[in-house]
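Now for one record.
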Amino acid sequence: MSLYTGQHVVAIVQARVGSVRLPGKVLSPVLEKPALEHLIERLSRAELVDQVVLAVPDTAVNDELSILADRLGVTCFRGSETNVLDRFGLAADSTDAQVIVRITGDCPLVAPELVDRVLSERATKQYDYLRTGQSFPDGFDVEAFTIEALRRARAEATEPYDREHVTPYMQRDPDTHAAVLEAAHAVPEERVTLDEPEDLEVIGAVFDFFGHNRFSFEDVAQLMRSEPSVFAGNRHLGRDGGASMGTGEKLWKRAKRVIPGGNMLLSKRAEMHLPSGWPSYFSRAKGCRVWDLDDQMYVDVGLMGVGTNVLGYGHPKVDEAVSAAVTAGNMSTFNCPEEVWLAEQLVDLHPWADMARFARSGGEACAVAVRIARAASGRDGVAFCGYHGWSDWYLAANLTEGSPLATHLLPGLDPAGVPRGLAGSARGFAYNDLAALESLLETGEIGVVFMEVERSAEPDPGFLDGVRAAASRHDAVLVFDECTSGFRKNLGGLHLVHNVEPDVAVFGKTLGNGYAISAVIGRESVMQAAQNTFISSTFWTERIGPAAGLASLAAMRVEDAPARIDAIGLEIRRRWVELADSAGFPIQTLGLPALGSYLIGGLNPLAVKTFVTQEMLARGYLAGTATYASVAHSSEILDGYFDTLSPVFDTLAGIESDEALLAHLPNGTAHSGFQRLA
């Protein structure tokens, strides 16, 4: 007599077309059939299964799965795409199932005899819930449970994670007798789940080896032992963490297949924050709060758009101006008047300047500025200090001979693609080293001095005045790059605070509060050199950027934003020191108050940054060891941030070595970027 005599056992296959990592994966062809078709045929051979049902989302993109089910003669139940537990439960109710086997569509190798074994073990031991454990290869995932356990989960589970993944609530429910079935003997730790393109190659190779879909679990296990090379293609991926991996992390993996590096900005690469688990993408942002693709909210006391949003995300006045620009029309054969008004305002803020040109990114604006400055000076050589973007003129400094570690001014960046003919055209000098600048200028080759006004360290007394005097003495054009420092202490460039006038200044980041606009302003005698060269781009004439710039300047004036974020930054710096003193370890703060950072004495800075990021993310904060201050960082926000940071600092206080710190980082450290020449 069967263990399930009188009981209706239904295998429900949970499947969808819209996978983030491998779209359409369940319909991927394997032996001239969709992978899902092989799975359904294999499940139909399980002796203890009475019925196979396909449970798919009710969105139009999944209609193909309904068509496949009809062709195979299996029931297809349509339900919610996001509330998978509800979809699954309704599918079970529609069949009068008493015992359910749950299989996901990304496990096409699940074998009928393994399903029967799980069902037999569940019935014999009278478990409410039983699943295969991690001693089975990834992709042989089988769960069996009673209809009562499923209904209890549907009624009681409230967390989004539980509603999305069906069975986690059952696994921890004290009223559900749950257990794990492990493999009877050692099986190689291979991966045969279908989530990545490499997985499809491996699964296809398995089916090709057998030439049919009637092979058993033991057949596959033996193949793993005898022909391990068949499974080598996806071994680097490790065991699938899809259930615990957020939508953003999955999309990041997908992005790296179609976008070199994964995105457009090094500072926003996921691995720059955490080696795994970083949400990567946002659905919306407001103030200093960011929501990821799973609608998880985080408080951003970290990079704030990498320094772009001093007024906070989604400032109403700026957004209103942009919306009005879109409504009126963003582009036409004519020019937008906003660029004239914005140029006038920037010139008014900087009495030494007469003219302005606009671009849309800081890197573009720096390239424009150096072109104008070279044209005005009549010499190609650039002496620079600080970070100035990705352009050839700047990365040419990395075209040096000898040891890269000893000579590269941007360690970690390879100047591949930068013409070697530019070698020597850009030469660096260290901040506060006036003698080094004088030495470069005395060669007679330098026509441009290009530098950040202030970054990690304050200028020594007389340094900036000395730079101005040296540039004038050698007829070099002095360019201050204020892309990062501008509008973070005063309304305008930081050079106004130091009372040192350049010939050209460059602004970006803060100018549009998250909208793309950058500016080059300067003396007429220099700026008119733009007429003697070619500097032109269609999308530098669109309307949104200047409209956002005008609205941002107006909001900064009304809200006294630069002075406020300077004060907020000083408060953050003070409380970092106070918290470290309380925890009992030394700390060093760096940078302008509004873009401050810290180092903890005796510990690897990258490991500390990774640990703080990891712990704060788990607590709902985007926060590493640097903060770009924003007016959205209210007293209440900062109180919550420091209350949350306190136990993290306490943990760090008990860590005495880098080795001990690494033990707290299960996935290793974040990637390091490049160093700025300070």
